[in-house]
Design a protein that fits this description.
Layout: E1 2-8, H1 25-30, H2 34-61, E2 66-69, H3 92-104, E3 108-111, H4 124-143, E4 152-155, H5 163-174, H6 179-182, E5 185-188, H7 196-206, E6 210-213, H8 214-219, H9 227-235, E7 244-248, H10 266-276, E8 282-287, H11 292-305, E9 309-310, E10 315-317
Parallel strand pairs: 1-2, 1-8, 2-3, 4-5, 5-6, 6-7, 7-8
Antiparallel strand pairs: 1-10, 9-10
Helix pairs in contact: 2-3, 5-7
The chain binds a DNA duplex (15 and 15 nucleotides) through helix 1 and helix 4.
Amino acid sequence: MIVKLGYVAMSVELQNASPSQTMTFAQFSKIKDRDAAIRKLERIAESNIDNCLRLLKHNAGNQIHFFRLSSRLIPLANHEELLDWDYIKPLKESLKRIGDYLNLHPMRVDFHPDHFVVLNTTNKEILSNALKTLVMHKKLLKGMGIDTEHRCVLHVGGGYEDKEMALEQFIHNWGFIQPAIQKMIMLENDDTTFTVKETLYLCEKLGIPMVFDYHHHLANHEDVEWQQDWERIVTTWRDSPLPVKMHISSPRSQNEFRAHADFVDPEMLLTFLNTIIGTVPEIHCMIEAKQKDAALFQLIDDLKSRGIKVLDQSSFVVE
DNA sequence: GCCAGTCAAGTCCCG
DNA sequence: CGGGACTTGACTGGC
């Protein structure tokens, strides 16, 4: 089984390359000349996308083939006071450069929109804002020339004091979401509310690939045994053009169990991988560690020293 | 040039 | 029911 590691949004090794520079609405409002303020937003967005390209080059140079793009590339893109702003138009060229680069250096990229994107709300305004944010992600993907299928990982949403009802609300709302948005989505079990089984219920019912988060599962489950659910998780990827992916991170400490540690415990990853050997030919593991790409490199070094067959700086084989 | 505080969003928790 | 915590990285303001 081939394992490919990825990391999240920014590098601790590449300096001054943040793809998430921002401007708050308070700052925006202080600028008297609205056009000038919008130009400033556009410069920030352009700089974010340029930094994104630098990160992709850094990845390709380090043999990393899996990467989560920042969801904060365009500050205030969906702010209600900026509905007249065509934020994509000035970014066409820089987005295309990303696409061109990815054509030469194939890499799996996706997004994880902020947890404020909630699809199971009963509040129309919240749902409409969530969908607006997803439309922005779609426009970014299109601008980059990337097939939009299964590129946005989301959580199920709020529990609203009745998880069963909250799950049914998700199904209800799903029916109102355009197919083009639906097909971008993957769902992940979260660390406080919706467990693997509950997330699977939606994924199976609605045909959504499920991203298994091992750390979240340890923090939030009915049954700590996950092995019997693994085949179901794999099956949710049956119709996807992309290999199964999962999230891996380690608890910062027993007291701060849900917080992400700086690095990933190799034992934890190997425990997971050894359990699923033979179920898929290839799996992509997204490392969610504070030390970002440095955590990925350290993990690979550790695996190498254990005699695991390492293919390059981010891939290896378990058998 | 560092540290503390602020900013966004929606949910959840506490009083 | 209202205010604060939670989370994340970036940024601002005070010294």
